[in-house]
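#onboarding

Welcome to the new folks! Below is a worked example of what a typical request in this channel looks like: someone posts a single protein sequence, and someone else replies with the predicted structure as tokens. Don't worry about understanding the tokens yet, we'll cover that in week two.

Example request:
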Amino acid sequence: MNISDDALIEKIKQGDLDAFEQLISNYETKVYTIAYRYFGNYNDASDLAQEALIRVYRSINSFRGESSFSTWLYRVVTNVCKDELRRRARHTTVSMDEMIENGRSPAVENKCRPIEEMIIRKELQDEVQEVLNSLSEDYRTIVIMRDIQGYSYEEISYFLECSLGTVKSRLNRARNALKERLLERRDLFTGTHVEAN
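Example response:
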């Protein structure tokens, strides 16, 4: 039997830990995905997702039901990630050489095509994540919310406490910045220059 989020929240507010586990089991993958999109690696994402869930548990009594639980949860997770970003002076990335040294490279000696394709895909994902990480906090947040998590403009406006016009213009600027940086990186590897439109 499925119990509604609201019913579970009421049980949690009365001290029912099982209800909290049940509620969170519905959202833990989404929480992890949000954290991963901010930091681009599994360890940080796991740590931040765990921290976000702890914060949710500690502040569940402040949830007043003015929005859906998932909307409130997203805001908590986003705030935890943004707090961590502010604490970090700069981000670090793991190079392929470091992965090989640490034994995390996928079968480098095996030259079969599927492995090569997997490595190329992984490198491309890492490249996009690194460019995403290089955006300002505001730009990164809005791209993650709209283009990765699929939230509506109205939801983003609520999360970020700004007008719809601000959301749309900020998203446009963020997408352009992302596009320009991806094109710059492509130019570095191909030795060509392409004008960003």
